[in-house]
Amino acid sequence: MKVSFLSAGDRALVVEFGDRIERALNDKVLRLDASLRSSGLPGVVETVPTFRSLMVHYDPVATTRASLERAITGLLDRQPVPHGAATLWRVPVCYEGEFAPDLAEVAHLTGVTQSEAVALHSAVRYHVYMLGFLPGFPYMGDLPQELALPRRADPRLRVPAGSVSIATTLTAIYPYESPGGWHLIGATPICLFDPVRPRAALLAPGDIVRFEPIDPASFASIKNAVDNGNYEVASEPITDPLSSLPGLTRQSTSQVLGDCVDARHKAGHDG
Amino acid sequence: MRAGLKVLVPGLHTTVQDLGRPGYQAIGVPVSGALDGFSLRLANALVGNPPGTPGLEILISGPTFEVAANTVRVALAGAGASLAIGAEKARVEAGQSVTLPRGEVIEVIAGRQSASCYLGVEGGVAVPLVLGSASTYVRAALGGLEGRALRHGDFVPLAIARVSQRAELRLSSPMEATGDQPIRVVLGPQQEYFTEKAVAALFDAEFRISQSADRMGMRLDGPLLEHRRGWDIVSDAITTGAIQVPGSGQPILLLSDHQTTGGYPKIATVISADLPVVGRRRPGDTLRFTAVTVEAAEELCRAEERRLAELAAQLEPVPDRAGIDLGSLYDGNLISGVVSGLD
User: What is the ipTM of this complex?
Assistant: First the structure.
């Protein structure tokens, strides 16, 4: 497999598969990530998958760039491995009123009605390419072409936590209140990141997300349940999201979303 | 009774830091940790702690504490910094431990030689670990004391209420200022996005750390670095020390709290041996860069580890001043020795 090894100082190297946002490229990244994680190479501190490359952080006291490059080349030459367990998440989103400050503008700019925009956005299974920008912030795609728009010319200083947003070919959810330049077309009451639960980030690279429209009353009741630690996001396990999309097992599993109150409260300090 | 340090003056930006929380960048959590990990480890060695024990990172201006424990043993690491103890403001220079009784007031004088200094406390600062680390990451309110910098009236909890009875330790020679030697970088990962002129400017020009500098990164004033292939890349991962250049051409040197991913090309990466040096530079200071190979940088990293191990191995006991009374302790300009019996 043809890859480029890029230098990132003496504690990290980049294995680059290409320069586009594309499922096939990201699949290669996630597969190398899975095989590196399971190989237990000495000196590897952590790996960070992104759209089209994998950053490998290492300890130069325990290994060298040269020996890592050889080992990674060896892993790439082997048969591809599945990238392990992944999950399909059904994320409730309210696309109405104050929860969707940019929906009218998005509809106007893309030439569809607001309800068509919502139908388009919630009709697609999104692939989680990577997490970044903020703890638990998922970059998901691909957006239906009809909704593709550049980022806002004028970024907001405060995007509320839970905002569901779109830009370019991607969609995302803001886990924390933060500045942001994406178009806000809805909001979810669920908690995407909580450092004290066993799985701190709800979503992982390689997961699949579907957005399910809810009304403001449901938003309020789900939010209340989340804050009280007794809401579970509906989910289903999938073995390898890229090879087995039609054969989803419908075994019901769930993620307990307790203890979100603290994280949300703390996030409120950011601005 | 809880042991701790009561914050009388918080300082400009004082946070609990250890050596960071690696392992969670894949879910978007920055590593954080001390800007100058070398000095934090030295401060810990001086008070007998393991290297990664949580201590306090002090930036630009120092805090003042009141001891709220039977005894505490503290040591400061950072060139030009010192502690002023009690109403007499008896000085204890950086690079030496000192033990103090309940009610004593410790003022950290950060000095002007270094942007950062580190207060090590025997046993460590006892805040709950978040994702395996005590490091404060303010942007997402993770770690430290409520995920934020210290404030007036805070209580910094300590792991132990009464310190071990032993001689104080000091460095065999005083902490030296780092000087203004060039910062060594490895080119890449995206040097090909820049013109030859931009790469040349990175190494020929002098950059000045702007006022827009914090634990996430420092904007550098100097020549603008021109892109050859556009400035919008498909977002990829970032490592600490990366020099990222957004569309404006003004470079940003990314530090401990940097975002895990970003969409701007990175022209070069500061080597790990020089990250502590960068962490000591203040806004207004100048930076020059020079290139080394990855192999050289790896060897420099290992050499720096050996240097730290040697410094820690060569700590020497301060002559025993036990048995003297508090008054004579303060009459001297050096507070040291075991102050057992005072608590």
Answer: 0.92
Indicate the residue of A9, A60, A137 with minimum beta-carbon distance to B270: A9
CATH of span A4-77: 3.30.1360.40
Say if B177 falls within a structural domain: no
Give me the sign of the Cα torsion angle A51, A213, A210, A114: negative
Q: Which residues of A touch B297 (CB under 8 A)?
A: 9-10, 60
Peptide linkage before B189 cis (omega within 30 of 0): yes
* A269 vs B26, B141, B272: nearest CB: B141
3-state secondary structure at position B225: coil
Question: CA A137, CA B88: separation in Å to the nearest integer?
Answer: 51
Q: Residue with structure tokens 């065999």? A: B172
- Find the radius of gyration of the CA atoms of chain A: 19
Which of the listed CATH numbers 1.10.3720.10, 2.40.100.10, 2.40.40.20, 2.40.30.10 matches domain A86-267? 2.40.100.10
Give the pLDDT of residue A85: 78
pLDDT at B1: 72
Q: Does A11 touch chain B (CB under 8 A)?
A: yes
CB contact under 8 A, A133 and B236: no
How many domains does chain B fold into?
Answer: 2
- Same domain for B154 and B271, yes or no, is no
Q: What is the mean pLDDT of residues B268-295?
A: 97
Which residues of chain A have a CB within 8 Å of the CB of B146? Answer: 266
User: Looking at residues A185-203, what average pLDDT do you find?
Assistant: 95
Nearest chain B Cα to A197, which residue?
A: B131
Map out the domains of chain A as residue ranges.
4-77, 86-267
pLDDT tens-digit readout, B170-189: 999 887 777 789 999 999 99
| A 82-111 residues inside an 8 A Cβ radius of B | none
Q: Measured between CB atoms, does A9 come within 8 Å of chain B?
A: yes
- Which chain A residue's Cα is nearest to B232? A19
Within-domain flag for B337: no
Peptide bond into A142 cis (omega under 30): yes
A94-103 tens-digit pLDDT: 999 999 999 9
pLDDT at B57 over 90: yes
Residue A240: per-residue pLDDT: 61
Kindly identify which residue of chain B lies nearest to residue A135, measuring between CA atoms: B28
Q: How much is the average pLDDT of B208-237?
A: 94
Average pLDDT over residues B62-77: 98
Contacts of A163 (CB under 8 A, 6+ apart): A173, A174, A180, A184, A186, A187
Say what the pLDDT of residue A268 is.
29
Residue of A11, A66, A201 with shortest CB distance to B27: A201
Q: What percent of chain A has pLDDT over 70?
A: 86
Instruction: Annotate B294-324 with DSSP letters as a single string.
Output: HHHHHHHHHHHHHHHHHHHHT-EEPPP-TT-
Measured between beta carbons, the chain B residues lying within 8 angstroms of A7 are 186-189, 269, 294
